[in-house]
Amino acid sequence: MKQKLLYLLIVLLLCGCAGNTKVFRDSDKTFAGLNAIDQEEAYEYKYFFQPAPYGPMTGYVGDTMPYFEDGTYYIYYLKEGGGSYNHSIYLTTTKDFLTYTEYEDPILEANYDGGQDGWIGTGSVVKVGSDYYFFYTAHASAGDFEFKEKIMAAKGSSLTDFEKIEGWELIPPESLGQKNDFRDPQAYYNERTDSIELTVTAAQDGIARILKFTLTPDLSDASYDGIIFTDPTGDFWNLECSDTFCLNGHCYLTYSGQDDTLWYAVSDERYGPYSAPTRIDGKLFYAAKHVENAGKVYMVGWNRRSESMLSSGPVTGWGGNLMVQQIGQKDDGSLWLEAPKAIPDSFTVKRPLLVKKDSVTLDAANGRAEQEAFTAYERFVLSGKFTFTGSGSFGLAFKFGDTAEDDKLIRLDPEADKLQLFFGGGATLITETAVPLDPGQSYSFTYLQEGSAGVFYIDGEASLAVRLYGVSGKPIRLFAENNSVTFTELSERTN
């Protein structure tokens, strides 16, 4: 604790800013007069958890490591900023994804003295008997170490108290031909064989792979089982935060391609062989891992933030808000993501629309049409249905600046079969995901936003996580370009 207080004092001296954090507590907040930065300071995140500030330092959720036991979801995460030293691991818990309990102190802290674990990377928790093991990535603090990354472990008798195991480590097998990239251990206990199965991501010949190891329950022995997956695209040197699970007769491997999106591949067996992988969601929902309870599977990751809230440039900051999405599964084994039911169900206050009826038709077969329909509150849910006849784009336009050229758009593009987020009135593509869209077919949609974090769902088909700074308190328009679109059963709810 003394080291942590010293670290905070140094940061305060360097930034020269020991001022008070702005507090904004009106029961129905008015945001229209605030810029994007002031709006962000005023938000109180509930569903998309964000760590409390540490003095003047904002904290963000990085790679998550979820674990479920006895009715509680334990969501460990690499903490960016907020008093965290070199991505130390922190914890928040929830029973329902509606309220979170934040643990102030780190669960596993990077080594202030430097060394092999001078930085900490993603890991996972597994229970064996009455003991818990926390496997994590140990990232060397300097370049003169033989291995840039090793796997290390901590042991605990509870889920909130772990001690690092001195002397225990797992290093890359010689067959990889490199000593730099060896991370993100994901552990599972196999009751049938009384062993720990561990997957690790690494590269061989510059191509990303996922490896498998088998460990004895006391960690006294570890055997290398080989490569279980190789990135077939050849585009990635790292498949971050890989995970495996089985659901209704299908087994899945998930991972986030470095600086890309969440992917999944399907198999009849937990460790492959796997089908060709498929993207799910876009680039702003990252590093998600699964957690399951009562037959339901959730992907827990983070919603990417921007380094510049006032701009319409790319959203590329590391870390952000915690985001949980539930997995939906089709008969053929393909997956989509949807909101955990408890979240939209908690929005019970019906808000008046900015249109007289709950339906709007935009006839823009050879041009553009738009209609103000909703208001962006601090947290809100939009829902409705839509049908269209042409191939042009349509969706939601959020007011950001003084003109339509500043708008932020959640746009559906039937011609390209894409769901997209654009800034600059459509000039700058931020993120997108694939979704088949057929004219004449009725689709239902749900849009959930809290603060600047949001997710647009085409129900039963696709999701797209978004980041929308500076739109609270302003109108939201429906728009269509070179298409005729009818929106029905429109609704907006807050809580």
Helices, strands, pairings?
Layout: H1 2-15, H2 36-42, E1 59-69, E2 72-81, E3 89-94, E4 101-102, E5 119-128, E6 131-139, E7 149-158, E8 161-164, E9 182-190, E10 195-204, E11 207-215, E12 222-230, E13 239-247, E14 250-257, E15 262-267, E16 278-280, E17 285-293, E18 296-305, E19 317-329, E20 335-338, H3 342-345, E21 349-350, E22 360-375, E23 379-388, E24 394-398, E25 408-413, E26 418-423, E27 428-434, E28 443-450, E29 453-458, E30 462-467, E31 475-494
Antiparallel strand pairs: 1-2, 2-3, 3-4, 5-6, 6-7, 7-8, 9-10, 10-11, 11-12, 13-14, 14-15, 15-16, 17-18, 18-19, 19-20, 21-31, 22-31, 23-28, 23-31, 24-25, 24-31, 25-26, 26-27, 28-29, 29-30
